[in-house]
């Protein structure tokens, strides 16, 4: 049984959104390299919020692909693990803020 092309396309689009989110995060960090605490300014918060919004939209695509084609879970597994890794990287500032 081959996976549905719809599942592969939706998962690929979700990963593309994650790449854009990581790019936004990297550009914002580069723009605020000299700041003592990154993300405290308006521009830093804006870029962070857009990146987290893109991450949420990509999660929606993965969930929609899983709901529409539940038997393609093996195709969705690597995409979901990629999403989890990127989510871990993008939310590192939240974990650092809570821990001190």
In short, what is this structure?
80% of the residues lie in helices and 0% in strands. By secondary structure, it is mainly alpha-helical. The protein has one domain.
Characterization of the model:
- It is a single chain.
- With 100 residues, this protein is mainly alpha-helical.
- It has one domain.
- Helix content is 80%, strand content 0%.
- It has four helices and no strands.
- Helix 1 runs parallel beside helix 3 (73-90).
- The longest helix has 27 residues, at 5-31.
- The chain is elongated, with a radius of gyration of 16 Å.
- The model has no long low-confidence stretch (mean pLDDT 80).
Q: What count of structural domains?
A: 1
Which oligomeric form is depicted? single chain
What's the end-to-end separation, in Å?
Answer: 50 Å
List SSEs in N-to-C order.
Answer: HHHH
Secondary structure category: mainly alpha
Radius of gyration: 16 Å
SSE inventory with pairings:
Elements: H1 5-31, H2 42-68, H3 73-90, H4 92-99
Helix pairs in contact: 1-2, 1-3, 2-3
Question: What are the main properties of this structure?
Answer:
100 residues; mainly alpha; 4 helices; 80% helix; 0% strand; elongated
